[in-house]
Design a protein that fits this description.
It comes from Geomonas paludis. The chain is α+β, with helices and mostly antiparallel strands. It has five helices and 13 strands.
Length: 296
C-alpha cells in the first residue's frame, strides 16, 4: 500500500487539473452566467492545485503550465458560449446548489493555502541547513492543506525539505526504489543555529523507499538547544552524525548527512522546533510553505 501512496500523491494535482479542464471543456455551450460560474469554479480548482499540490513528485515546472492552459481553455469556452442569461435556464436547482457549495469549499481551500505563509507569532529565525542546490518544501506552512501529514501528527509547523534535479523532480522518477536516486540522499546537513547538542540517535538503518520504520518515528536525529528553543533535525543517514551530546556547535557546522531513517517514505530532511514544549514557527528568511524554493 505504501508503494502506491507516492504515485497517488504525485498525480493528485494533475488529477485536479484534469477535473477543472473537463468541467470547462466538456460542458455544452451555455448562457454566459453559467459559463462564468464554471470558469470561476475551475479556476479555483486550478489555483488550489497550483498552490498546494506536491509538484516536485513529478516536476516543479509543470505547475507553471497551469495558468497558461487555463487561459487557453477560458478563451475557448467563452468563444462558444451562447449569449443567454439566467443560471436557472438549463440547470436544475439541485445542480446549481451543488456547484455553489463546491465553489464555497474551493474558495476556502485557496484561502487556507495562501494563509499557510502566515506564521502564528514571531518565528524562530534559523540559517538554512543545507549546502548547495535548489531545495523544495515538500510539506510546510501553517495550514493543513499545505502541511497535511505534520498537522495530523501534531507538529503542524514543521518542514519536510527535498532537493530538486534539473527537471524539477526530487528524484529520478516518480517513485524510484534506490535511495541514491533521490537528490537529497547523502546531502550534508549544517547546523541552522549556534547552540549545543541536547540529544541524538544514530542506530536506525536507512530503509528502502516506501518502507517506513514506524518503531523509530524520527529515525536518526539530532536535537539542538539554541537559546530557549529545541530544534529537531530528523531522518538522518545511518552512521553519518559527526557530533556528540553536549557538544557546542556553531551555525553552519557540518552535523550529519540526510538519509531515510525512521517513519519516512523517501529521503528528506524534517526540521521542527519547540520552546518549552510548545511548537514554534520557523523562518529561513522569507516565509515558506509547500512549493517554496530555496536556492543555495
Amino acid at each position: 500500500m505504501t508503494r502506491l501512496f507516492l504515485p497517488l500523491f504525485a498525480f493528485y494535482p494533475l488529477g485536479l487539473t484534469l477535473v477543472a479542464f473537463a468541467l470547462l471543456l466538456g460542458a455544452k455551450p451555455r448562457p454566459r452566467s453559467q459559463t462564468a460560474l464554471l470558469i470561476v469554479i475551475s479556476g479555483c480548482i486550478v489555483s488550489f492545485a497550483f498552490l498546494a499540490g506536491p509538484w516536485a513528485l513529478t516536476s516543479y515546472y509543470f505547475r507553471y503550465a497551469l495558468p497558461v492552459l487555463f487561459v487557453i481553455a477560458v478563451v475557448h469556452i467563452i468563444s462558444r458560449s451562447r449569449s443567454k442569461t439566467g443560471i436557472a435556464t438549463s440547470w436544475s436547482r439541485l445542480r446549481l446548489a451543488f456547484l455553489l457549495l463546491a465553489l464555497i469549499l474551493l474558495i476556502n481551500l485557496n484561502v487556507l493555502a495562501v494563509a499557510a505563509f502566515r506564521q502564528p507569532g514571531p518565528p524562530l529565525n534559523l540559517a538554512f541547513p543545507l549546502t548547495s542546490g535548489k531545495y523544495y518544501v515538500l510539506q510546510g506552512g501553517n495550514s493543513i492543506v499545505s502541511n497535511p501529514f505534520h498537522a495530523l501528527a501534531g507538529n503542524k509547523l514543521a518542514f519536510d525539505i527535498v532537493k530538486l534535479n534539473r527537471i524539477g523532480n526530487r528524484s529520478a522518477g516518480v517513485s524510484p526504489k534506490s535511495l541514491d536516486d533521490y537528490e537529497i540522499f547523502g546531502e550534508r546537513l549544517l547546523s541552522p543555529c549556534t547552540g549545543t547538542v541536547q540529544s541524538l540517535y544514530d542506530r536506525a538503518a536507512d530503509t528502502a523507499p516506501g518502507h517506513p520504520d514506524g518503531e523509530h518515528p524520527a529515525g536518526n536525529h539530532i536535537v539542538l538547544k539554541c537559546s530557549d528553543a529545541e530544534v529537531l533535525l530528523a531522518h538522518l543517514k545511518h552512521g553519518s552524525i559527526r557530533v556528540k551530546v553536549g557538544e557546542a556547535v556553531s551555525s553552519g557546522l557540518w552535523l550529519a548527512d540526510v538519509g531515510n531513517s525512521g517513519n519516512t517514505l523517501e529521503p528528506h530532511l524534517h526540521i521542527g522546533a519547540t520552546v518549552g514544549g510548545v511548537e514554534k514557527a520557523l523562518a529561513f528568511g522569507p516565509s515558506l510553505s509547500v512549493n517554496s524554493i530555496v536556492i543555495r
